[in-house]
Amino acid sequence: MAPSSSSQNNPILSGHNLKKSYGSTKVLKGVDFEIYPGEVVAVMGKSGSGKSTLLHLLGGLLTPDSGEVYLDGNRLDNQKESIRSKQRLNRLGFVFQFGDLVPELTVAENVELPLRLNGTGATKARQQTLAMLDRLGIKDQADKRLSEVSGGQAQRAAVARALVHQPAVVLADEPTGSLDQTTGELALEALVGAAKAQNTAVVLVTHDITVAAYADRDVLLRDGAVDTELHDALAGTAPAAPATPPAPTSPAAPTKPEGQN
Ligand SMILES: Nc1ncnc2c1ncn2[C@@H]1O[C@H](COP(=O)(O)OP(=O)(O)OP(=O)(O)O)[C@@H](O)[C@H]1O
Ligand SMILES: [Mg+2]
User: Fold this and answer.
1) 184 lies in a domain?
2) 168 vs 243, which has greater pLDDT?
């Protein structure tokens, strides 16, 4: 049943029976997904299983062949592009699989883009940007061009840009894919910590089980569908209880969970 209003007890973002094909390739065959305010959910699955496709559908960047996407309890997928784009700007943040920051701009200029685009004044935008860079440990890199910082610093800049306008949900596609393990884990801790601190939910697409350990919950995609049986077998658990929303409390501390749930 589709949600009708938004609160801590309703999903902030959800997909219902999502189907998407490219030509004769059925990529998603009816996927259900939901995420609650402040929750971190890992979407796992092998290469080509449709993780990026699902993320792009949830973010209104792609339109499903059938099925529905709701953001804040309102239908997103059937809105015209101008409305979807406004929703993306105000309510969503993206960390893309192949990076999309502008190398010629400085770190701060890249990060403050969503704020400038949503009408925040220059002074306030820079203040908020520097605070977020500080939160992520790269304030000292603010005035360097993106082409002059390390891969790990650039990845933190991408995380900062996704979070700076305090979106409801960040959609992160393999946010540590190009980093070595240690740098990747630090970037991930920064992402999850900063998101939890402002109650931003995170959809974390990854094929890496160590990355999924940072999530509150994980979802496994296989053959175009959510595979709960294999998920439970891999996790060594009995069939999972139905998904319940997290308690509507203050944001949790950014700690790494001990194991799968
Ligand atoms: N624009 C497109 N046109 C045609 N086929 C596409 C397109 N985008 C994705 N596909 C196909 O859809 C399937 C799912 O792609 P998707 O990018 O969602 O996978 P993924 O799980 O994100 O993989 P990876 O882990 O490699 O990033 C793949 O078989 C891919 O080749
Ligand atoms: Mg992908």
Assistant:
1) yes
2) 168
Domain membership of residue 120 (yes or no) is: no
- Say which CATH number the domain at 230 has: 3.40.50.300
Residue 51 Cα to ligand 2 middle (Å): 6
CA distances to 62, 75, 120, 152, 164 from 114, rounded to whole Å, are: 20, 23, 9, 21, 8
The pocket around ligand 1, CB under 6 angstroms, is made up of 22, 25, 27, 45, 47-53, 97, 207
Report how far residue 141's alpha carbon sits from residue 154's, in angstroms, rounded to the nearest whole number: 10
Q: Which residues pair with 75 in a beta bridge?
A: 70
- The answer to whether residue 257 is domain-embedded is no
Residue nearest to atom 27 of ligand 1 (CA): 47
Residue minimizing CA distance to atom 2 of ligand 1: 22
Domain interval for residue 50 = 13-102+150-235
List, for residues 102-122, the tens digit of each pLDDT value. Answer: 999 999 999 999 999 999 999
Mutate to test the pocket of ligand 1, among 29, 33, 46, 52 (most ligand atoms within 8 A of CB): 52
Asked if residue 242 has pLDDT above 50, the reply is: no
Task: Answer yes or no: is 37 within a domain.
Answer: yes
